[in-house]
Amino acid sequence: MGVSDEEKIRSTARFLATILIGGVVVGVSLLGLSSKLHFPFPSIRCSSNDKKKKKGCVRVYMDGCFDMMHYGHCNALRQARALGDQLVVGVVSDPEIIANKGPPVTPLNERMIMVNGVKWVDEVIPDAPYAITEDFMKKLFDEYNIDFIIHGDDPCVLPDGTDAYALAKKAGRYKQIKRTEGVSSTDIVGRMLLCVRERPISDSNNHSSLQRQFSHGHSQKFEDGGSGSGTRVSHFLPTSRRIVQFSNGKGPRPDARIIYIDGAFDLFHAGHVEILRVARELGDFLLVGIHNDQTVSATRGAHRPIMNLHERSLSVLACRYVDEVIIGAPWEVSKDMIITFNISLVVHGTVAENHDFQKETSNPYDVPISMGIFKILESPLDVTTTTIIRRIVSNHEAYQKRNEKKAASEKRYYEDKTYVSGD
Hints:
GO biological process, one term: phosphatidylethanolamine biosynthetic process
EC number: 2.7.7.14
CATH architecture of the domain at 240-377: 3-Layer(aba) Sandwich
Radius of gyration: 24 Å
Strand order of the largest sheet: 3-2-1-4-5
Number of helices: 17
Transmembrane segments: 12-33
Mean pLDDT: 77
CATH topology of the domain at 240-377: Rossmann fold
Low-confidence stretches: 8-44, 195-233, 417-422
Pfam families: CTP_transf_like
GO molecular function: ethanolamine-phosphate cytidylyltransferase activity
Shape: globular
Strand content: 5-15%
Largest sheet: 5 strands, parallel
């Protein structure tokens, strides 16, 4: 049975339409412009340098303590940014955190560096209030031209039992995102406090004792859901989609000057952000190598890392100064690696957990040193992962109470919810 001319025309039209639509989808995906991924390209309707609100520009606001900032915070900011063209972030002041939650681990200046370093953030407001008051909400709408106030789907309850976002909801200017399951600041602090409970804290001043105290929290009574303050081992399950969501989606230009820096990047902190900023200023593309868990444990002790490889990778990927990461980078920087990634310069900061590599017979940077492409950078901040751990240990009772304060509600949250990726 023959095919009519009309059917041939329709078939050809469908084929051409499929190619055209497919080409657009592929092109958009390759350019990283998909609204689903929402890479941080400037909006046509908005300009970060122009404080005046432009027609059609949607500005959204999200606040938080951002203490012990982790990939869950970054994912929340990514989701919030996807709801508008510009994201303004309020960082809660130290006194407000103390009054509502307990002492913060990291002071405001370090938390500001962390939030400013997230690639989905357009503007930051320091000393934000813990609760959205009527006066502050008016300021957001009138001075900052905010269209919507964003928060996660986990409850934010004030000490008096009221909802911190009640006024924003009442005004009809509130939007909600999904919380990223599997991690919280309480959980991370708890991973470190777990062993402190079982040892005299007076030993913590000794560095070797400090190293012995910390582990991933593989304590049977906690894994079995026994006593404690809700501390759990990491159950983060990485997916390719999450990695793509955090990635920039583009490689270096053929003539790009590629800078390479590696490390553990455990408990990603302000010191990490600042050295990455300095490294990025030296070239066109910053490639970051993240050592696997076994390498970190071998070089820094069985108590490390606190965060696993994929948790650490996402935190680094969320940093605006980072273009790409090598997940599970080798300890030694080889010639093959330098050629493969077209690395122009290998750098290392002056502030680090361990400078023993300079004394070792097998220096991991021997090859780039011999090639004349190795440089030690002056670290802007004297902060390391051990700094963060010591802060918690020295004030462990306060953080213990802070964790216990949230433990019951957080435990109920995890028991009542199934794993949701937090799109």
